[in-house]
Design goal:
Beta-Lactamase; Helix Hairpins; 19 strands; disordered C terminus; alpha+beta
Length: 589
């Protein structure tokens, strides 16, 4: 059974009072008895000496007292006896009368003995009686029972017991009161300390009026202040670490020894496609890479060597990862860098080299073949020579167009190159009509019709006129080249939220959904054979995309029900006072 502080203090105080009271009573009783018996000894010695002076008085009948073998009398309860000769002390009872032997030896004997006849202890004092020659001729002993001493001691004992009980009751009350107050102060101190723990050092500990408890409370408060300072420092470091982790572009995942997520930064959540992962979530539920899970499991279980590897996450994301072990408590830290753009750029670079080589190979081969034919004698036949020369000129123009498109695209894609655009409020209908007029021979050749529909007719976009002309030209040329003979093409422009939407639509064969996300890539062809037959190089839509982006716009491709394709360009509408005759605003592409 566990006792509270108040009960413990009370019990200890009562035990201490009982021990001290009992010890004090015993000591006091012994001191009193010793003092009373010493007083009795002095009185007995006085009586014995008085009796010794009367030894030479004649007894009745004329006989000298000194000649009597023994004489005794009782005065006021004191027994006085005279011993004229020394007896043999071999007897036990006589041996107990050591006071007489001491007196015969010339001293004063004191004895405390039990006397059965008196029914209690007796105190006796023996003094010597000396003769003319100075020798001891008799011994006078005075003895008295210690009943009065015992009565006095008993009365004292009763008084002490009564006083002790009263004092014990008072002391018990005072001890209970003191222990209650002390326990109350301690409970207050404990309650304040508990609040100190729950509030993280914000609360204050009070110790009451007691100096010691107040000092202890002050120590608690000082400790709380230091703890609060340490906690604030830790919180600041934690927040700083959280900010650093969230600011990192690389994904970081911290895993404990049980392979559960401890911390995951925002980049990791974005990379893995998860949101607000709870602590203690198994890492296998958020990370879908067998290679990474194997490395994390090995290092979290006590492995010492860091591991670096490249892998592909679900969804086609390529990452370079490094797994470091957590020393001491176990676990691992996974850092991942998304290199998908780098992988795609490398792949695009290889594709570009392959595509450019492929695109250049055919016209160069035709030019070379026809030139060799002319050199081998075809010049002698004017008709044949004319056909070879036309082929050389046609493929040379194709090479020139391809190179110009490549240079334009390189300038648009370069981060270090800039293209100065004169952006103004350009009327869309005028640009569209100019493009239609320029491509009319191609439309007439295939029996196709082109309709320009701009509402309102004065609708303008904030754009560079030459860039908008090239965009519409590339889109209209694609629609005419890849559309059906006798088909229809529409150039439409409408006001939309925050800008202008310009679309080029046709009723041709359309573009399958699986190709739409890639039609703006360089040299990408939906139908390889058909594109080559139409004479395209696969760069027109890529140029359109970069020109639109340079003017802060967007471009997208979709179906045109019931049949055909729709390219939609969203451009910003210009501020007032920025018409085509209002000046130019230089911007970097």
């Amino acid at each position: 059974m566990r006792y509270g502080v108040r009960r413990r203090l009370f019990v200890v105080s009562m035990l201490l009072l009982l021990v001290v009271g009992t010890a004090s009573g015993v000591v006091l009783e012994r001191q009193l008895r010793s003092w009373l018996e010493a007083r009795v000894d002095r009185e007995l010695e006085r009586i014995a000496r008085t009796a010794a002076t009367m030894v030479h008085v004649k007894a009745p009948g004329g006989q000298d007292v000194a000649q009597l073998p023994r004489a005794s009398t009782t005065v006021d309860g004191v027994s006085v006896s005279i011993h004229l000769r020394r007896r043999d002390t071999s007897n036990l009872r006589e041996a107990l009368a050591s006071d007489i032997e001491v007196a015969w030896a010339g001293g004063i004997g004191h004895t405390r003995r039990y006397d059965p006849e008196a029914g209690g202890f007796v105190r006796s004092v023996a003094v010597p009686v000396r003769g003319v020659d100075g020798g001891v001729v008799a011994v006078v002993r005075a003895a008295t029972p210690l009943a009065e001493v015992d009565a006095a001691v008993g009365t004292l004992r009763k008084t002490m017991v009564a006083a002790g009980l009263v004092g014990l009751a008072v002391a018990a009350f005072m001890s209970w009161l003191a222990s209650t107050l002390a326990a109350r102060s301690l409970r207050s101190l404990a309650s304040s300390a508990a609040r100190l723990v729950h509030t993280g050092g914000e609360a204050r500990v009070t110790g009451g009026n007691a100096h010691e408890l107040a000092h202890l409370a002050g120590s608690f408060n000082a400790l709380a202040d230091r703890l609060r300072t340490a906690l604030d420092a830790l919180a600041a470091e934690r927040d700083q670490l959280e900010a650093v982790l969230d600011a990192l572009e690389d994904a970081v995942v911290i895993v404990d020894a049980d392979r559960r997520v401890v911390r995951m930064n925002a980049a990791a959540e974005r990379m893995l496609g998860v949101e607000a992962v709870d602590p203690n979530t198994p890492v296998v539920s958020v990370l879908r890479s067998a290679d990474l899970l194997e490395c994390i499991g090995r290092l979290a279980s006590g492995g010492d060597d860091a591991v670096s590897l490249s892998c592909e996450l679900p969804g086609g994301r390529h990452v370079v990862a490094r797994v470091e072990p957590l020393r001491g408590r176990g676990g691992a830290v996974l850092a991942m860098q998304d290199v998908s753009d780098r992988v795609h750029m490398e792949r695009a670079r290889r594709d570009l080299v392959a595509n450019v080589s492929h695109e250049l190979r055919t016209p160069v081969a035709i030019v070379r073949t026809n030139a060799e034919a002319l050199a081998d004698g075809a010049l002698e036949d004017p008709a044949v020579a004319r056909r070879f020369v036309d082929a050389i000129v046609r493929n040379a123009e194709r090479l020139g167009t391809l190179l110009e498109d490549l240079l334009d695209l390189a300038k648009l894609e370069s981060r270090h190159a800039s293209r100065t655009m004169s952006r103004t409020n350009v009327e869309i209908e005028s640009v569209a009509q100019a493009v239609v007029a320029r491509l009319a021979p191609l439309a007439d050749k295939r029996g196709q019709s082109v309709v320009v529909d701009v509402v309102p007719p004065q609708l303008a976009a904030y754009a560079d006129r030459s860039a908008l002309d090239q965009i519409l030209s590339n889109l209209l040329e694609n629609a005419l080249r890849y559309g059906d003979d006798g088909g229809h093409v529409w150039i439409r422009a409408r006001v939309d939220e925050g800008g202008v939407v310009v679309s080029v639509e046709d009723d041709g064969p359309g573009i399958a959904a699986r190709h739409r996300s890639r039609v703006f890539e360089r040299f990408y062809r939906v139908d390889e054979g058909r594109t080559r037959a139409a004479g395209g190089a696969g760069l027109g839509l890529a140029i359109v995309k970069h020109l639109v982006m340079a003017m802060d716009g967007t471009v997208e491709v979709d179906d045109r029900p019931p049949r055909g394709t729709r390219f939609a360009i969203r451009l910003p509408s210009g501020p007032a006072g920025t018409g085509e005759d209002a000046g130019t605003v230089p911007e970097e592409a």
